[in-house]
Amino acid sequence: MTPTPAGARTGGDLYRADREPEPDSGALRDRAAEAADRAARAAHVEIRELHTLGEMADACDLFQRVWQPDPTNPMINSELMTVVSHAGGYVAGTYEGDRLIGAGVGLLSTDGLHSHIAGVDERSRGREVGYALKVYQRAWCLERGITRVTWTFDPLVGRNAYFNLAKLGATPAEYLADFYGPMSDAINGDDLSDRLLARWDLSSDRVALACAGVPQPVDTEDLAGEVVIGLDAAPDGRPIQGRTDGDVVLVAVPRDIEALRRADPSAARGWRLAVREVLGGLMAQGRQVRGFGRDGRYVLDRGPEGRRP
Predict the structure, then answer these.
(1) Under a CB-based contact definition with an 8 Å cutoff, are residues 100 and 58 in contact?
(2) What percent of the chain has pLDDT over 90?
(3) Buried b (16+ CB within 10 A) or exposed e, 34-61
(4) Residue 57: CB partners within 8 Å, gap ≥ 6?
(5) How far, in Å, CA of 162 to CA of 154, rounded?
(6) What pLDDT is stored for residue 183 in this prediction?
(7) Closest to 287 (Cα-Cα) out of 305, 263, 267
(8) CB 71 within 8 A of CB 77
(9) Is the pLDDT of residue 69 over 60?
(10) Three-state DSSP class for 212?
């Protein structure tokens, strides 16, 4: 981590005003920086902030390769990234030697930092590069007094749900139906852009453990009460709805939604609408998503106030 110069004003100052310092905040920052260094070394990468126009252009090119959007509608442009960086926001890149293989952009918000976009080059996936980039983001935020990060992700992409909720320890806070409108890129296709808003409480024990390399999946054995299956896959691979009246409700997603979109768009749309109805509906009723299990299911319960005696 590059230390902030003494006396310099950072974006995090917006969130430190009139607040009491967190207990042991210096130790928390130090441990977060150490975790970020370990994760970067394990992935054999260097992670640093981006500042120059050339670096911003390289990051934009990376995002274009990852998402392959319509050329007239890029994911983000270098001018906006330059503004975000200059205004104190988060723009960082992951390097293997002199080659940029990952990047992320985050906007300062009333909730702390909103991580707008992050991606890793396809040739570098499976090496924990994305994990290292997020652990770096946590350390970057804590260094600036920011203790919460939010971002959105597609609830149908099971590997992303496991990464966000188990590998990083984030918690879904809101179901957002068709949040971005039509996207039409290589990843999303023509699917509706429903998203879960993830909330990452950087000073929590759960997140600290996750960033230290201890995943936080939720297993049904950890929760008390009746467990029911609210959504599962039928023998033909399409969604089938079940019960949602138990203390704990399990909501499955397809094994590979991206392949399903290409092979059977109708089935993919069926999963989208079913997950919106069941997962989104339960969250709207106040059910809390406790996490994502190794079996590819969201785990929801009633929360402390709603549990049956």
Answers:
(1) yes
(2) 77
(3) ebbbebbeebebebeebeeeebbebbbe
(4) 78
(5) 12
(6) 72
(7) 305
(8) no
(9) yes
(10) coil
Helices 129-143/25-43 angle, 10° precision = 160
For 62-74, b/e burial (b = at least 16 CB within 10 A) is bbbebbebeeeee
Mean pLDDT value across the chain: 89
Kindly state the tokens that stand for 157.
Answer: 């992409």
Contact at 8 Å (CB) between 48 and 2?
Answer: yes
Return d(Cα 289, Cα 299) in angstroms, integer.
6
Note whether 170 and 138 are within 8 A (CB): no
pTM: 0.87
pLDDT at position 10: 38
Token couple for 45: 């990468």
CB-based contact 275:231 (threshold 8 Å): yes
Give dist(CA 115, CA 198) in Å, integer. 10
Task: Answer whether 81's CB lies under 8 Å from 50's CB.
Answer: yes
Is the pLDDT higher at 281 or at 70?
281
Site of tokens 């997140």: 207
Q: How far apart are CA 296 and CA 292, in angstroms?
A: 7
Q: State yes or no: pLDDT of 221 exceeds 90.
A: no
* Range of lowest pLDDT (6-15, 68-77, 141-150, 163-172): 6-15
Which H or E run contains 159?
helix 158-162
What's the pLDDT band for 309 if we cut at 50, 70, 90? very low
The yes-or-no verdict on residue 116 having pLDDT over 80 is yes
Q: If we measure between CA atoms, which residue out of 96, 105, 152, 158 comes closest to residue 127?
A: 96
